[in-house]
Amino acid sequence: MKAGPFVALVAIATLVFLVLPILIVVAMSFSSASSLQFPPPGLSLRWYESFFGDPRWVEALITSTVLAFASSIVALVLGSAAAYGIVRGRLPGRGLIDANFMAPLILPTIVVAVAMYLALAKVGLLGTWVGLLASHVVLSVPFVVLVVGVAIRSFDERIEQVAFTLGASRAQTVLRVLLPNLVPSLASAWILALIASFDEVIVTLFVAGVYQTVPKRMFNELVLQVNPTITAIATILIAVSVLAMAAIGLITARRGGLLKTMVGR
Amino acid sequence: MRIGRNAGTYVVPLLVLMVVAFDVPILLMLASSVLAPHPTVAHWAELVESPIYFRVLGNTFQIALVTAAVCGLIGYPLAYWMRGLGGRAQLAVVTLVLLPFWISILVRTYAWIVVLGNNGIVNRSLMGLGLTDRPVSFLYNQLGVTIGTTNVLLPFLVLPLFAAMLKIDERLLQAAATLGASRRAIFWRVFFPLSLPAFAAGLVLVFILTLGFYVTPAILGGGRVPMISSMLDILINQMPRWELAAAISTLLLAVTLALYGVYRTIAARAA
Asked: Domain B55-270, what architecture?
């Protein structure tokens, strides 16, 4: 059943509502005007120069990048191992354990931020690198458990059993039989965790102390004033996201495509 | 040799981290609303007695309700339209709907300052068309918060709804047509009821997500649209009244989990 013309019109307007603001930000970042007027009166790269010329922004970019890489790698290792344990293990209450790993995605982030703030303050780790790293791992690990869990479930268990029968140890089976087959999913999971950490604002605002990440700086600037430099960093973030999305699209294309991975599960 | 033997030990490292860095903090927070500095219900009494907290709670629920309603009103036609598209066009539109999912909430929120500001494209067009002499204030009020929140949360409704609509068997609709039903009757009496569980689940999801939403309301509300999350920020970072923040967080957590239970029940029926 095809949609009628009125429904199609509403749908297209909604699609424009969804996407247009992003396109406008990209266009504005190349504006030569110092106010936010659209369309821009001329083109320039001044906002990119102003971003990369400001040591505070560059420092925030470095902190964000290091934090995103560190936390996503920890999340990938711990999360993949946990997904294996949940799918293949015979644990009592594994549904509950799985729910526990997913919980940071479901609870309101502001509640998680308050809880982590109070707990870290209690043990004197507020504003430390350890506290920040742990909070980012907790927030990005659900993506890894989810994506890698689905992949292990769809990998034929009998192939692992054959390796066992032929005398491989569990470590050999996991490392040499299972993992090579999971590479696309592991890569997708890692990228998701990386983006989740890089974009994280709320918990970082509460627990980061003097550490400045890009989203934290952006948030604090946006609450105070409107500075066109933000259009430049916003465009850089959009470019990174689109590249990440394209990468996952390419990686998962073999397995039924982006559509199935994101919608179908 | 059974595959499952000892495989369970693989969950241990993450489980330890989750207990230490997530479960214990959440439990401590729940406890501190009644135990700090000694066992007391004073913090809860203050929450119940001060009219200001009720006003903020009511305001938050109202915004969540309006956001869910608007998402439903514009999201359903979009999902329905997407279902009828051909392969290549459908993939392109799904990618466009997915795109915002990937882009930082900060960026998407910031975009609305550019679009809706006094010098933004909307106000310039309105003034250019002579519909208004002065810029309309879209920002730093409830309207701006609702527009931004709807924009950010819309994909959460559209994508699962679209996936559910794809599963509706075309032959059912054909059968209804063969039996002489009009297009309108086919939609309202066959298609819509079949899509209703997924639609309801999407509405509840948007409602839940708005309740605890912080970034977009803080930026587009400019401190003038009080919501639960911005109040928590004030109670932690400015006042500071930690125990009261813990009590409000507990309340928000309970409401969210209860609604999430509703969501799971409806979503299970949709699947």
From this structure: Orthogonal Bundle (1.10)
